């Protein structure tokens, strides 16, 4: 009788029960779309489904005439039409040329595997920050798992459709081109802003809450109002800087309106932005003094890009005030906001994150139908304000 070594005996036993040499034992099977919808906990997973269109709003998925390459929808059946049975996939810029619906309409009906974070997108069960795309049953090529390095020193040579007329420009020409693009928008009333902010600033971990801008606190959507611990509508470009108030237009533009604790909002008041000062009660990491306000580090770039947006969107050419930036912190009621040098530094140090990008997309898809170009192209900050 042959004598078995201990290692050979273990291998033989594992093989007998199908655990040795079986990739199925060590590689987790992709989730179905139904499983992905039920597991929206931020974990990373691969989801397998059929491409059924492009989501353009929380309950809208289109199957033709795709406006861009930013997203696609998956379902467990190629014939699914109910959005409640779909998962919405965010397509990062590195994958758009190969997996975006506008560039690849033939993907409709194909079964694919996508790896990403099981997190809401368009306020809908989603898969965000995707790291790999492949047709079902194949291995993603290396180039899809390692997005190429891109330069941020100048506008890209090829722009997506929305920004076509701005491509290749800089300085005043770029600013003018962007103004023409983004001033085409749907305008909200000040009352409509309440509901819009509940969608744009929704807490990714709790759909019943919003995230307060300066405080960073997650708070129930239902607690909006004027009470001491309620949240209200913060004008990041202070409405007194240009005296535009809350009238439809700059006073209701949700690209710079954010939820904030009532008392923290009052502390910020109409201060310009700069570094330094005293700690702000109820807003850890934020500071203020007699002439300026400094937000917490995690949103410094967000604040800067909102200010850049306002300075480009409102140029005094469509009946609204002309807003501009300068390097002062004593702007009072003049239509100026500072400090430009500090805001540029904040934008560079705190690039757009998933929350800010999702917010931009929700505003575009569901509310104003225009975008903040400095979230999509942070490099345009230095192209306009060198």
Automatic annotation (TrEMBL):
Protein name per Swiss-Prot or TrEMBL: Endonuclease I
Keyword hit for Signal: yes
Region of interest (Disordered), residue spans: 270-291
UniProt GO MF annotations: endonuclease activity; hydrolase activity
Record key words, sorted: Endonuclease, Hydrolase, Nuclease, Signal
Domain Endonuclease YhcR N-terminal: 31-135
Signal peptide bounds: 1-27
Entries under Pfam families matching the protein: DUF6359 (PF19886), Endonuclease_1 (PF04231)
InterPro entries per the UniProt record, alphabetical: Endonuclease-I, His-Me_finger_sf, YhcR_N
